Amino acid sequence: MRGKRLWIVLALALVSGGAAGYLALTYMRQPADTVEAAPVSITEVAVAARDLPVGTVIGEEDVRLVDWPSEVLPEGYTTSPAEVIGHGLITDVRTNEPLLATKLALKEAGGGLPIIIPEGMRAISVKVDEVIGVAGFVLPSTRVDVLVTLDQQAMQTDPISKLILQNRQVLAAGQIIQRDANGEPQNVTVITLLVTPEEAEKLTLSAMKGKIQLALRNTLDMDTVTTPGIQATALVKGPAKPAPRRVVRRAPRPSGTTIEVYKGSERSTTNIGGGS
After folding, report:
1. pLDDT band, very low/low/confident/very high, at 232 (cuts 50, 70, 90)
2. pLDDT of 251 strictly over 90
3. Which of 167, 175, 174 has its CA nearest to residue 196?
4. Which fold has domain 42-115?
């Protein structure tokens, strides 16, 4: 009887343990309760559908709407393509970049280069070669210094090279096709600089009377320097040559004794022991 009770106790223990294990396994397999996130407010913002260079007049194909968290909306954002279509860009815009009001010109201003010229400034283009254009590194938004070299014919004295403009912004850089002296077509690089009216006069005269050279500079370097320029003779100037010696030859003195004889106003000499 005692043995039968022992078996019953063991059976109950096994059943209880199995049930406890099953419940524990079932509990562990249940997914954790997710914390319900607070709803995020969304606003549609107009962005560029592709890379748009400066001067582009925005069309329907250039704009698309994306969802933007309302808490971090950029200042000057637009919510409708109609607000930006027909406006010219005054700066480059990358794909998915918001089309902000600060990047747009007035609708009546149109597009192209004129909309990015500040009031009181001028855009002037000069033809350059690869060397003058710093081997392709002179690109829009870079800054350059302009040097001019005037030859002897222009100066009527010693040729000179002088820094005439400093820290000028490049608005555009491109190529045109023109014919050379033999009538053959050739590519010519044209650089457009942002200058004042007075600087435009100086640059135009320099291009006519001499040869222009561009010097690329760091866009963060805003310092202006003063240089005296350099003349050709200063490049090879060495020690001054001594002036040629002037030799004055005198008639040799006669040897012996010289006797002077005066007769009235007449004078004569006689050399004794030497020759007359």
Report:
1. confident
2. no
3. 167
4. Type Iii Antifreeze Protein Isoform Hplc 12 (3.90.1210)
